[in-house]
Every structure is written in structure tokens, then in C-alpha cells.
Amino acid sequence: MKLFCIMALLIIAGCHGQQSAFTGLGPVSSRITLLTWIMIIGAALITLLICALILISIAGPAGWRHKLTDKKSIVWGGIVFPVVTLTALLVYGFLILNAGGALIQAENPVHISVVGEQWWWRVIYRYDDGRTTESANELRIPTGRPIEIELSTADVIHSFWIPAYAGKIDMIPGRTNILHFIADKPGIVTGQCAEYCGGAHALMSFYTMAMAPSEYDAWLAKERTNARPALEKEGEQLFLSGGCGGCHTVRGIRADGRIGPDLTHVGSRLSLGAGILPNTAEGFAKWISQHQTVKPESLMPPFGIFSESELQSLSAYLNSLE
Ligand code: HEC
Ligand SMILES: [Cu+2]
User: Does residue 163 lie within any of the structural domains?
Assistant: First the structure.
């Protein structure tokens, strides 16, 4: 019993905060939360009713017991009631599945594509003029506007889930799935890959930051620009000579690799390694020297080639890419 209580407490504690479907920060997730409550409370009431009926059938007065075996009771209680309840829930569930889509028709949505990669997220902001800007492991969105996210994958099946805003949708090879939602107010929440996708699946997280529309526009304008000229010349040199540019893009310098995350403005992001390390100079140093320990199986090759001071300047350079 004690163990059960502890487990239950742990599970309930997991429901709180940044990564919870009960937070309901937008109209889509609020509807999902309402459906969840209807299911939980409904299931509890029906369970109580069944328990009462069992008790009556065992120890109730003879008249009541007789009534229970009535053909009428069986047809109404055993067939009509479950069919009507389950059909109503099914229809309601379909309406909720469609809730995001209905929101979008009203207004011109913000277009973002997210590509699942083992084990990080490629995020592409799409503009009306057809141009794009790439980022990674973080989604920034304006509040109050419908968001349309195109979900695809570069390798295996992943599942994109921001519980505070919407239900999860799989990223399936060869397909593009669409997710719609709205963020009601500014704030930061986390999301997670929700489909086992290999070794570092549990370490495939990301942040979502909802911003006031004017702040978002200013941020996006900055995100579109090239990397600022390096203050850390030595760090930039190490980045280029270390071969980092073969896999990473830093717009504005000779680094246009497409295998790993775009690092043009990596210093302004909220985390490193898909939600694994803090975005600080120490975080960068730790990522470069120990990513195979903090994120085992990560597809970035180990780099043991840098001396301590080289590691410092390389990290300072990356941290300055705001
Ligand atoms: C063979 C390709 C490859 C090379 C070369 C490479 N990386 Fe990476 N890098 C990756 C991949 C893939 C990831 C994503 C790993 C993950 O999160 O699972 C990554 C992630 C990162 C991140 C975290 C980015 C983020 O958005 O969180 C940083 C910082 C980084 N690399 C820096 C470097 C530096 C510095 C070098 C050169 C010393 C380098 N990388 C060389 C493939 C590479
Ligand atoms: Cu996964």
C-alpha cells in the first residue's frame, strides 16, 4: 500500500508544470484536457455504479435482484447505455481531433516545419515569400495566432508532442503530417519525442517559447540575419579547422554542413543537445568534450582533439553566436 501511494504520488508529480497535458495553455489542449476529465470522471462514476449493481445482485433485497435480471434492465443497461455513451464519446473525440484544423481556417497561420532527426529537431521557419530560416531544438511562436506545423522525419518514426498546447502527432517516413494549435499567453514549456526512435530517444526533448507577436517578429527578424562577426576569432578559426562546418551551418562564415543542427544563433537558444545541457559557455564545452557521455549514441562524432584553452575559446565563440 505504501509503495502504491509513493508510486501514485510520483505519477501525479509528473503531471505538473512545463510538460503537462493538464496545463492547457491553448484552445486545442484545453479541449483535450476537458475530454480527459470527462473520461476520468465518467469512468469513475460508471465503475461506482457497476460496484453498486454487483453488491445489489449479491446481497440486495429479492425484489431488486429480480429487477436486475429483467430483460428490460439487460437491454437498457447492457446494450443501449454502453452503445449510446461510447458513440457520444467517439463523436466528441472526432470533433476534438479536428479542433486545431477548424481554428486555422479563420486566419493566415504561422508556418513552421519540424523534421525529426535521431535525436534532435530541425526547425524551419517559412515565410510568405517562400524563403526559410533554419534553427533547431527550440520552437518560438507568437501568441494568439494559429500555428501550423508540418511534421516529417529524416530517418525513423518520431512523435512530436508539446502536451501544454496539443496532442501528439507521429512523424512518419515518407509522409508530412500537420499539427495546428494556438498559444494563449507568453511562456516557456517543453516537448518531447513520444515514439521510441533508438538509443537517445529519451534525450530528445525541446523547448517551446510563446512570445507576444511584436517580440516574436523582432526575434524572427534577428533569426533571419547571418551570424554576427566573431568576437572570438580564435574560436571561429577552431570551428572551421576542426571540421565542424562539415556538419553544421553558421550563416555568414564558410560553414554550411546540413547533417547537424544549424548553429547560426545557437547562443540564443534555451538549451543544447535537444534540451539536455544549459546554454552556457560551460554547457558548450561539456557538449563538445563529453557529448558521448551526456547523450550516449549521439550522432556527432567524439572530439578529443582540443586542448583545454582551445575548448574554452571554441565554447566562448559558440556562446557568442546569439
Ligand atoms: C559528423 C557530423 C558532425 C560534426 C563533424 C560535428 N557535429 Fe556537432 N552535431 C552533430 C549532430 C548530429 C548533432 C545533434 C546531436 C544530438 O543532439 O543528438 C550535433 C550537435 C551539436 C551541438 C548542439 C546543438 C544544439 O542545437 O543543441 C553543438 C553545439 C555542436 N554540435 C557543436 C559542434 C562543434 C563545435 C563541432 C566541431 C568541433 C561539431 N559540432 C562537429 C553532428 C556533427
Ligand atoms: Cu524518439
Answer: yes
CA atoms within 13 A on the CB side of 168: 18
pLDDT of amino acid 69: 86
Using most ligand atoms within 8 A of CB, pick from 197, 205, 223, 247 the residue to mutate for ligand 1. Answer: 247
List the CATH number of the domain containing 216. Answer: 2.60.40.420
Residue 157 contacts residue 171 (beta carbons within 8 Å): yes
pTM of the model: 0.87
Q: What percent of the chain shows pLDDT beyond 90? A: 72
Q: What is the pLDDT of residues 60-114, one digit of tens each?
A: 898 988 888 889 989 998 899 999 999 999 998 888 877 766 766 667 789 999 9
Within 8 A by CB and 6+ apart from 162, the residues are: 139, 181, 189, 190, 191, 208
Q: Can you tell me the distance from the alpha carbon of 157 to that of 170, in angstroms, rounded to the nearest whole number?
A: 7
Domain total of the chain: 3
Nearest to 193 by CA among 218, 215, 163: 163
Give domain status of residue 16, yes or no. Answer: no
Ligand 2 being an ion, which residues bring their Cβ within 5 A of it?
158, 193, 197, 201, 204
Contact call for residues 258 and 249 (beta carbons, < 8 A): yes
Query: Tell me: the pLDDT tens digits for 32-59?
Result: 888 889 999 999 999 999 999 999 999 9
- Domain region containing 69: 27-102
On whether residue 245 sits in a domain, the answer given is yes
